[in-house]
Amino acid sequence: MRFHSLLLTILSTLLFALPAQAGRLLFWRYENNQNRLIFTTDSRVQPRAQLIPNPTRIVLDLPGITLGRSTVDQTIGGTIKSVRVGQFNSQTTRLVIELAPGYTVDPTQVRVRGLSPTQWTVELPDPQRISNSSPQPIPRPNPPRTNPLPQRPLNPSPSSSQENNNFQVTRNGLFVRLEQQGQNRDILVEDREEQQIKTIQFTLPGASFPQSLINQTLGVNQYGVSDIKFEQPQPSQARLTLRVAKESPGWQAYYSRLGGLVLLPQGGLSQVNDLTPPQPSSEVTVNPVKNQNPTISIIELTNNNSQLLIRADGNIRGEGTIDRRTGVFEIRIPKAQLAEPIQGPQLGRNSPIYQLRVRQVNTDTVVIEVQPSLGVRFGGLQQPNAQTLSLEVRSLRATTPPPRDPTTIPVPPAPNTPIQPRPLPPGTQTPRGRVLVVIDPGHGGKDPGAIGLRGLREVDVILPISLEVSQLLKQQGVEVMLTRNADYFVSLQGRTSMANRARANIFVSIHANAVGGGRSNVNGMETFYAGNRELADAIHRSILRNVTVANDRKVKRSRFYVLRTSRMPAALVEVGFLTGSVDNPRLANPAYRSQMARAIAQGILDYIRQKRL
Questions:
Q1: What tens digit of pLDDT does each residue of 261-307 get?
Q2: What topology does CATH give the domain 2-129?
Q3: Which fold has domain 436-611?
Q4: By three-state DSSP, how is residue 131 classified?
Q5: 98 annotated active-site
Q6: Helical packing angle, 590-611 and 458-475, nearest 10°
Q7: Helices 534-546 & 590-611, crossing angle to 10 degrees?
Q8: pLDDT by residue (tens digit) across 330-352?
Q9: Which residues lie below 8 Å from residue 416, measured CB to CB, with a gap of 6+?
Q10: Catalytic residue among 98, 330, 458, 574
């Protein structure tokens, strides 16, 4: 376990936060009539896609995403045999579209599209009978970004510098680029000792080396390794051999999400740093590139939580961009690598940082994403000295709030009213078991919903409310899934199917109302249910208790599609009328929307406590 944890630190994503360390695959569906696979995750993901022959399969790996269930194998029929979804390794979910025997597709015609950083589609051309042409890997798309980051090609064309980087000696071990990866569980390791020479041989079924490495022996002269030999006995089998010190422990190999292979000694690099390598083989042709980039070892909150510091053992520079919608600050640090392990801040319930994600996106670039807690904003990225980056953390609260019951969400009063929120009864606790709440921001994408006075759109009102409801619930220990987290279209069927597949406990759809005929005198909020009324009542009471509404239009029964097709208690909240003379300016006000979000979240918590979920 210690070694596995170390490897994840080197290669992938670290989360220093209360939430789980990896995102989840929330929903997937194959639409046979459109030759299209749709899937949704609860955090940003960059899929990796490839086409594998014999039999023909389109394989998509989702780094940083877990499935949370056993492998699913769905039979499709026709030219598509099946779709399988499973856990490729502890941090990667794999989706496989397998074609019927004798069929293939042109990989250049396969389209992997990001509707948002968390919702993707894979569109296939009509499968054709297999010809003699050799399929090529599917190009990997860049995810949609709201940040103005420069786009970098994921598969740059080969160059002499790239060929020299196909094998690197890094501060975190040995890294080998691969044209095609196999599977971790299939890697075969064999230790040999012949005439005082110890070698460790790795056989990689299904893998292939770049052409420039095949039949080469490269010098290492570090970590007790004198050289490494690369062979490709078969097109779908790679083999490499390390010549190591006699005292060397065993070595292990793991596939990296960076598109290569990492080699590390058992017990970590500290076990081999003082070993003298044996004499190199006479076959050594060239020494590898040594990655001497500065190492980022510490990320900490200092100065009374007003500053986030990123420290390295050498000179670093960073570029910072902020997503104005979510408040997430992204720091991209080129020519740097992560330490093993990296020391991160402890993020508790009162931390100004809600989540910290650290990624080694390639062998030369580190990306740090910082998500603020509610009431916190970030300033600019500064450079106190050559080895340190600093991000200013600003609290928008005038004073530190008093201790409160963990399930209570403080609700600020509406503008110009003396109303104060009512605290929850003393002694209440946060949810004890798994409670999954699906928050459904209505409309989106091609369907903007209602259009109100002064052009105020429904989608622009309900998405920020829904995102804040989600964040508030997560802070209280509730698991939350959003049917969408950006402005894109999701069908009504897709919304409830997502909740039903996930076996959610609660479904809450959020909308804003409108009425025609110039009746701006119609204002107020209302809540709907189809079966169980208790959830709608709890949310409605909380809104009336904590928000000054123009009119109480009551709790009503309705057969809205998302209510009648949800298999769990469901409610639909209409937060006000976009066409109303009173509601419209309030809904356009971010402070009022935040007040409404807090009241909805509190109502959901009230229901959870009431039902002892």
A1: 888 888 777 788 888 888 878 777 665 555 567 888 889 888 888 88
A2: Immunoglobulin-like (2.60.40)
A3: Aminopeptidase (3.40.630)
A4: coil
A5: no
A6: 50
A7: 140
A8: 999 998 887 756 777 877 667 88
A9: none
A10: 574
